[in-house]
Amino acid sequence: MRGGFGIREPDVPAGGSVSGGTRSPRLFDEVRRVLRTKHYSLRTEHVYLGWIRRFIEVNGRRHPRSMGAEEVETFLTSLAVEGQVAASTQNQALSALLFLYKEVLRIELPWMEGVTRAKRPRRLPTVLSRSEVQDLLVQLDGRPWLLCSLLYGTGLRLMECLRLRVKDVDFQRNEITVRNGKGGKDRRTVLPKALVEPLLREVERARALHAADLQEGLGAVHLPHALARKYPNAEREFGWQYVFPSPRRSVDPRDNVERRHHFDDGTLSRALKSACTRAGIVKPVSAHTLRHSFATHMIEAGYDIRTVQELLGHKDVATTQIYTHVLNRGAGGVVSPLDR
């Protein structure tokens, strides 16, 4: 059996033993079960399984139950010292292993004070100027253009945009409701008037796809948590469908049901990279760069930082304040004496 990272999973019983001639559930199957029970996303599932798999491989395929804090400390330290990974990568690996021991194996690890921590550099976000944004958007068309325009015009995160449901776009009030955003919070942000017409066309396109799926006896969409059980008809209602559905249906690995997922983020990333090349933009640009640009340009336009904080969904205003350091008035917002 292969996992999401293309590496064969060690054939390890979850309990580390075989009793009565019947094998215990495989460790990775049990990790998946617990992750899905706790409603972790498929992306988090793939990442956690990848780190657990790597931890087991590095330690000679020993069962994690036979290891402990010492092996975890050594593994995390090697990531920082030998692998020279970013602090966020090391923290991700730590989270995966803590989940394995606490939630799956029911083993509490003592606090690991001997871990060499990766340094967390203070970096400023990459921001495009208004002219660079326009040059970029000119190089796009179709769905990639609409998605990138929406990311820049609303400040949405990439997956918030791709997972947008029809019912959460209010064309009358010109606003978008983000459900279960980062930190499990809901929020509202602005819907640019310039995108109302193209977004309405996209909704009608989604309606046609959904109608075709229903005619084939399908048309169900994945619902978060237990909503599918609480509202058994909701998964086939149009309001719950994705605004940007995938052109093809696929089998959901969580329950093996054929559904229509949302538009692929990899397709958008490739289109964005190609557009940057054609536009002659040499800055490193990702979908998140458009969110950074939205925040910076909103503050430049004179909007209160608390308003921008709410639109972005930041828990702490200090996170939003970083954009005050990348305004187009020079470093720190000062004017060079050469320009006076």
From TrEMBL:
NCBIfam families from the UniProt entry: integrase_gron
One Pfam family here: Phage_integrase
Residue span, Core-binding (CB) domain: 22-105
UniProt source species: Lysobacter yangpyeongensis
Protein name: Integron integrase
InterPro entries reported in the protein's UniProt record: CB (IPR044068), DNA_brk_join_enz (IPR011010), Integrase-like_cat_sf (IPR013762), Integrase_catalytic (IPR002104), Integrase_integron-type (IPR011946), Integrase_recombinase_N (IPR010998), Integrase_SAM-like_N (IPR004107), Tyrosine_recombinase_XerCD (IPR050090)
Sequence similarity: Belongs to the 'phage' integrase family.
Domain Tyr recombinase: 123-336
Record's keyword annotation contains Metal-binding: no
